[in-house]
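Kindly go through the entry underneath: sequence plus fold tokens. Please state briefly how this chain folds according to its tokens.
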Amino acid sequence: MKIAVVGTGYVGLVSGACFAEMGVEVYCVDVDEHKIKQLQQGILPIYEEGLQEMVDQNAAAGRLHFTTSLADCMDQVEIVFIAVGTPSQADGSADLSAVEQVARIFGQHLQHYTLLVTKSTVPVGTAHRLEKIVRQELEQRGQAIEFDVASNPEFLKEGSAKKDFMTPDRVIIGVASDRARRMMSLLYRPFLLNNYRVIFMDVLSAEMTKYASNAMLATRISFMNEIATLCELTGADVRMVRQGMATDQRIGSKFLYPGCGYGGSCFPKDVNALVRTAAEHGYQMQIVQAVERVNQEQKKILYKKLHSAFDGQLAGKRIALWGLSFKPGTDDLREAPSLVTIDLLLQAGVQVIAVDPIAISAAQALYGDRIQYTTDVYRSAMGADAIVLATEWKQFRLPDWKRIRQLMNVPLVVDGRNIYDREELAKEGFLYYAIG
């Protein structure tokens, strides 16, 4: 089978490489000529563990190609996946201009029955919208070529995307015809052989499943952050509360960790898009709206704790910020809580030295020389008035606290992910602030 994946960002590149790993011949398409040239040379635009090796191997095997033209491969492929960006617009709605452009090109160059599949996160009803665009293009050509539009939303977690794709919890596929279902069944046959759940449904339900899933996970995070705040006010320990909750099988333990807020390319964008979709249908999603409000406020928590610890006297302090990316395992800074913390600290006249194993280049593009950078936690601690943990990278889990205590000016740790032990740090002479 030959397929095209349009968009070589996070979702498109991971999907294309993983399909190629399964023996499919894949054409990865992107309008960014520089990105395609880089990919042809084996230079990836993103970091994802194991992805470089997978891309190199499948490109060398002739199963993975990179091109700027969807038109050039339309006569060869049976399925075209849309994996372009759908960023939030000012009103919170998803920007579908890139998605619609792919549909236009698809319609302009359709040669034989081909299945168009949205893998980008798109609002409910987008597949029907794309079908109309393709039909309009075919009418202008005077052609009556058959096609279908399906939905196959992605559920990849940055930092474990390769694993998520190859061993998924489930694969959601929305189709409107038996022919489309047969083609998607053939493509995902390796997953069926391994007994992974491939769930077929109608297209509208598949589109909604993506948004509903992300909104639920975001809700759990914001809910626990509110519980953590209440724990601090009442004297309860949120870690004990979480343990008591998680043992209830109806609740479980995943996405039940309090912290300094969620970020990334999915949750903030998808929560806002879901709210916007509801508004377009005359409905107000009060819970989902509250989820995002809580998260925006939670991103200020690290700064607030520092402000309290120093009685508001932050100007001139030197703060070591451990972690830049919105989560471990990625260099993605989109909507990262660290950025809110840095902005507030800079406004307060604080000297910031940031530590991250991967995301420094991305941060330099944003902040330049307004902050300092290092990959060494001990260098960051030299003369520091506080250490603030924003991202729970494994490298930060077991530092030599005795050594760090000797290097610091003020022995203060603000733990935005609750990964340290209060009693252990107290024994080493640290003042310790956590979430909840």
The first helix runs from residue 10 to 21.
